[in-house]
Amino acid sequence: MATFLDVTRLEYFNPIFVFIFVWIVVYATLIWSKVLGSNNILNAMIGLILGIFVVTSNAAILLVSKVAPFLTVVFVLIMLFNVAGGMLGGRIESFPAMKGIFLSMIIFIVLVGIALEIRGTFGEAGASTEPQSDLSKNVNLLLHPTFLGMILILTVSVFTIALLAAKG
Q1: Exposure winner among 20, 54, 92, 119, fewest CB in 10 A?
Q2: How many structural domains is the chain composed of?
Q3: Are 61 and 15 in contact (CB under 8 A)?
Q4: Which long-range contacts (CB under 8 A, 24 or more apart) does 37-41 make?
Q5: Domain encompassing residue 48
Q6: How many CA atoms lie within 13 A of 55 on its CB side?
Q7: Are 42 and 78 in the same domain?
């Protein structure tokens, strides 16, 4: 039965969505960090080139499509922190440690995505692509979604406590 919520046909457009996502994220990150200065054309060209490089690799498309929801959550947190700081009279530039925290969160998410992708690609021969439920191996425990979620929540709480304690 076809419904308006049936979005399975959108999987054919996945490379286009990944290309646009990579282009926008690289462009926004370069503008935000000002690594290459404030030249918008150069930043847009580097984002375009990296987007093209990602689209040429099937493994990179799969990796970005798996990691993109988590990166979107981090970017929403950045925007919410910026709005909350603006309401309280500050800006995100007044908290230089926050750039490092958000950057470390992004790097952590990408590294976990790469580790999960490598585990899925170079796993045991003949292994199914379904997640393994046997937690007897350390790798299965460390890369289990429940354990990774617990580590993420604990990391956020540690940074929250550290930032609240530094203000006092």
Answers
A1: 20
A2: 2
A3: yes
A4: none
A5: 1-56
A6: 17
A7: no
pLDDT tens-place values along the chain, 168 residues long: 455 556 676 778 888 989 998 999 899 888 877 888 888 899 999 999 999 999 998 888 888 888 888 888 888 888 888 888 777 777 777 777 777 887 888 888 888 888 887 777 555 544 455 555 555 566 666 777 777 778 888 888 888 888 888 765
Instruction: For residues 3 and 44, state if they share a domain.
Output: yes
Q: Show the tokens assigned to 155.
A: 């990391």
CA dist 37 → 30, 33, 34, 61, 150 (Å): 8, 9, 5, 29, 38
Q: CA 77, CA 111: separation in Å to the nearest integer? A: 19
Contact 101, 158 (CB under 8 A): no
Regarding whether 17 and 85 lie in a shared domain, the answer is: no
First to last CA, the chain: 59
pTM for the predicted model, two decimal places = 0.59
